[in-house]
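Input chain follows. Return structure tokens only.
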Amino acid sequence: MDVASAQIATTVILNLSVAMAIGANASRASLRSAGSAWALRQLDSLRMVALSSVAVALAACFALLWLEAASMAEVPVTEAGAALPTVLASTHYGTAWTVGTCALTAFAILTALARNLHGTRATSIAAWLAVGTYLYTRSTVSHAGATGDVSWAVAFDWIHLALASLWAGEVLVAGWFTLRVPASAIPERLERAAYVQGLSRAATMALAGIVATGLFSAVRAIGSLEHASGNPYADTLLAKLALVALAAVLGGSNRFFVMPGLLAHLRSSSPAAHPAERRFTLVLQIEAIVLIAVLVAAALLSSTSPPGAG
């Protein structure tokens, strides 16, 4: 595998693991006031998911730095170590990497220190500020940062990245962790119903923001209609938009066709299992796979020059 391909693959792993950590922490926040045995089990599990994900993210950060050093120095990956001090001390990428990695480390420490599952409000705010800082540094080294670290382009890209990470992370966590095991007792089912409703609201708001910020960034990157197709950047962007649309359709089908029956069942006194539970989780899992494909497309976009770029 060449350096460019390795950078894309590592970026996918980084973005996926950060999204998982964000989704796990967001789910923990939504369950923090719950008190059933199901909720407490989920809080414990979600903390471990967040810690594992951020550990993978940090490893990917260091791998990306090494690969970037090899690319900048135009040397084999095995010889990139000698270029690391120069990259860190003398390049914009190095500065952004240092700030971002410190912020991500702070996020990991704050998550690890939250041994009390209910945590504190101050710890939660600090953790979100830390991961927000990390995401901002990622935007400054993207195409959006071409005109400087402080610009509307960077701000919109940052918001887009944060919302996309939240959407993908919460869907991945819900589909593969929190909703895989049915709740049985009445209090557990009521809290599960509240969690499902919160997940749906968060996904809907995130999608609205993703569409708005994504349109701004797409128009800025494409520049004109003549560049809207027939070039690698536009074609990858169109593929990403198609995948986002598919994920939105899957989420909408769950929201409008499956969730009403699921909520009615969870709020009833019937102890029997309901097909809506399995159907809702299955659609979430399919949506999660589509969103992973979106992250792959986003990584490809980040390594592809927009039409007309310098």
